[in-house]
Design a protein that fits this description.
Radius of gyration: 19 Å
CATH architecture of the largest domain: Alpha-Beta Barrel
CATH class of the largest domain: Alpha Beta
Structural class: alpha/beta
Shape: globular
CATH topology of the largest domain: TIM Barrel
Distance between the termini: 39 Å
Oligomer: single chain
Strand order of the largest sheet: 5-1-2-6-7-8-9-10-11
Length: 278
């Protein structure tokens, strides 16, 4: 039976694709971004037990060598996330497609579709493909939120079931991308080109991080890439925010309005027709 490791399910979101959407966050990521705003989604629990004895509400225990989370008593104080040294959480659960579909059906009347996010969701392509099949039967749209690191042109069934994808291009420069994420960006750029070619690229996104990234170069080159493919593809510029990040890894600050306005003008001047800032 196909199961996915689910970090959490957000019933309603208006920022993860068009309309009101249910977002399924999967656990595990192959990037280790210096500015990651959700570092607890990167790793997988190794059942070291450090969080169990320090949970202030006694909602964690060791069962059959694994950390078990007792949701009913959890106050979501996030003490377990602070303690974890594995960039993980004891709260993700393995769920079948039927179990996730049951959650989605509870919200069906209020949403236009679902978005699969992460972590990096494409590390669980088999589960996503099976879930998208079910969601199509339910009559909802299917969106993918990805770092673009997995060769999606090799996942023909998944692409056929997916309505649109949103892809992060964190840095255009390969060296800077490796420093930032610990991985290259070649596959990411090829995915963007491929998804645009098959008309399934909804949005490209870049996080703006002052004093850390070459933001003007990145926006200049990425916007030119988008225009070379389809100038109407949305380009989202995301302000770096220190909330949730590992401050020992990065020293930056929220970019000012002046900087964001300059970057919007740069992208628009290159021909991007749909540039937004969040």
């Amino acid at each position: 039976m196909c199961k996915g490791l689910v970090n959490r399910i957000l019933p309603f979101s208006s920022v993860d694709g068009p309309g009101n959407r249910t977002v399924i966050f999967l656990q595990g990521c192959n990037f280790n971004c210096l500015y990651c705003h959700n570092p607890e989604t990167i790793g997988k629990c190794r059942a070291c037990g450090k969080c169990v004895s320090l949970c202030p509400y006694d909602t964690l225990s060791i069962v059959a060598g694994q950390v078990k989370w007792h949701e009913e008593g959890c106050k979501y104080c996030d003490r377990c996330l602070e303690i974890c040294t594995e960039n993980s959480s004891p709260r993700p659960v393995k769920m079948t497609v039927d179990e996730v579909a049951e959650k989605i059906l509870a919200f069906k009347s209020f949403i236009s579709g679902i978005t699969i996010s992460g972590g990096e969701c494409t590390l669980q392509c088999g589960f996503i493909t099976s879930l998208f099949k079910r969601v199509k039967e339910i009559g909802l749209t299917t969106f993918l939120d990805t770092n673009g690191s997995i060769a999606l042109w090799q996942e023909s069934e998944l692409i056929s079931l997916m309505d649109m994808a949103m892809v992060d291009l964190k840095s255009y420069d390969p060296k800077e991308h490796r420093v930032l994420t610990c991985m290259d960006n070649e596959v990411v750029i090829e995915n963007i080109k491929y998804l645009a070619k098959v008309n399934k690229l909804y949005e490209v996104r870049t996080v703006i991080v002052p004093e850390t990234l070459n933001n003007y170069y990145n926006v200049d080159m990425i916007s030119k890439l988008i225009v070379s493919l389809n100038s109407s593809i949305r380009y989202k510029l995301i302000r770096y925010r220190p909330k949730g990040v590992r401050l020992e890894l990065i020293d930056s600050y929220i970019p000012r309005d002046e900087m964001m306005n300059e970057l919007v003008k740069l992208a628009a001047g290159n021909g991007c027709e749909n540039v937004i800032v969040v």
